[in-house]
Amino acid sequence: MQLKIALLAGDGIGPEVIDQAVKVCDAIANKFKHDIQWMPALTGAAAIDAFGEPYPEKTHEICVSSDAVLFGAIGHPRFDNDPSAKVRPEQGLLKMRQKLGLFANVRPTFTFPSLIDKSPLKRERIEGTDLVFLRELTGGIYFGERGRKNGGNTAFDTCTYTREEIQRLAKKGFELAMARTKKLCCVDKANVLESSRLWRETVQAMEKDYPEVEVTYEFVDAVAMRLVQWPNSYDVLITENLFGDILTDEASVISGSMGLMPSASVGTKIGLYEPIHGSFPQAAGKDIANPLATVLSAAMMFEMSFGLQKEGALIRKIVDQSLSEGIVTEDLVKGDAKAYKTSEVGDYLASKIEIYKSSPGEVF
Ligand code: IPM
Ligand code: MN
Asked: How many Cα atoms within 13 Å fall on the side-chain side of residue 351?
């Protein structure tokens, strides 16, 4: 199969983790006889330096002419500490999500048996956790009207949602629930916010179309608590943009490291795949960042954008193998075992894929 993939490494550790995902994808392409055409393009601080904006038109053109986008991370400390900066790397990510119509962000949280003890949470609470957040990604307070008044002494950001925006996200949530355990939780703050009341009303009206799905409605503050108390009790959760941003960072604690959780952003056509972690500037250039979230994002890309299930499954299998054999970066090292470099983990994964011989009964 011909796969044309836009490659947006971005800032900080982005280029390092993306390099490993490329090694893994190329190994998969070799093994399964695909032909990947990588289309590199600039985003974030790197694009601001080159073009004066974080998501230049040229980058957008490359994305829309590709079948999928693989993305690293965005953000640079020189902008974080300057509240008056007119252009920020993060604006690039938001513009990209909006221009590519990526309204649904799929963020799974799961545990790896060999890493259960890396989580600060108790084993018996988290074992078997396998949940998915569907975070609305192109609406809400991230994109509402904002500004200053009273001579700059009052600031406001507004959260706006239309029924249509909620319906299209909720539809994906119901469909995902149908493909899983048929449990859907709508997370909102309907006891206070009008936009949340519209979410609840809209989702309630859709229940009749999915009679097999058991829907619950919970307030975001309660979910924040129960998520780390009884993560096992959730399956598919749908929520608005900001709540989803916060809850998915929280949920990553369950898996033991933020460097592990992948994500997919989808909408009408093209899909974008990225780790949920940020640009981690303190680690940039040191070859120590964990590449697994990006590698697992590439697995999601094979499955969701190309329908290549075996390819995705083999990546997951080899990632599991690297974890159980302790070929891991310093964030996952146990006791005084050796920490591997980012690039070494990538080399290990790629070489294991190339030589993998399936055992009887295996699909790949
Ligand atoms: C994320 C990030 C972004 C967000 C930032 C970098 C704009 O935190 O993808 O979760 O808030 O959506
Ligand atoms: Mn976030």
From this structure: 8
